[in-house]
Request: fold
Amino acid sequence: MKTKLEIAKNWLPRYTGASIDEIGDYILLTNFYNYVQEFAEHFKEDIKGYGRPMQVCTNSHGLSIINFGMGSANAATIMDLLIARKPKGVLFLGKCGGLKSSTEIGHFLLPIAAIRGEGTSNDYFPPEVPALPSFKLHKFVSNKLIQYNLEYRTGVVYSTNRRLWEWDDHFKAYLGRLSAIGIDMETATLFIVGHANEISRGALLLVSDMPMVPEGVKTEASDRLITEKFTDLHLKIGIEAMTEIEEQGEEIKHFRY
Reply:
């Protein structure tokens, strides 16, 4: 295997337990297994990839969901492996911490860009290249949020490789100077590697904690409550938005890269 495509065609089934043609044209990405499980139960489909790094389920309409794990390195891996499938659109359903008082737990965040604090994306483009979603894909998602009359925010997300930073006052002061509305570990990487691989991509993030204050730091108990209260809605919006894109057949890829 000499080319990136040859490697991806071999590794995508190895990582997911699914053959390439078992993965749909449109894909939901998540880093939570329960999202895949709920998707499978809703559509009465089997999950592939037990015992593998990633799990995947595909419904009869050709929409797949993949749990790629946590962190920017895993985000880059799945966006590289997906060149084997060449999906028409990818939407990340993730969680983020809210950095602004105007953003509350349970709000949805539709990022207009992501700050590349994770470092992984530097292997793909110079630091001055912005990490951006595909506008048309986000248009479908925002229309769906409006349809359900949901509270949501737009703004810039900061992506970091640091999972444990909530104690670091210097880092929190730095975040305060960036005007970012949320923080996560994957969005910037997904946007940049999607751009590098010419994959249309977007992200719908659920604000799950307010980590700038000690009482807002995520705990097992608080995360369980967020999961129980908002997972169904988060997944529902993603499924409906991506299904509508497929049904309308609108081209969401940039005409030129």
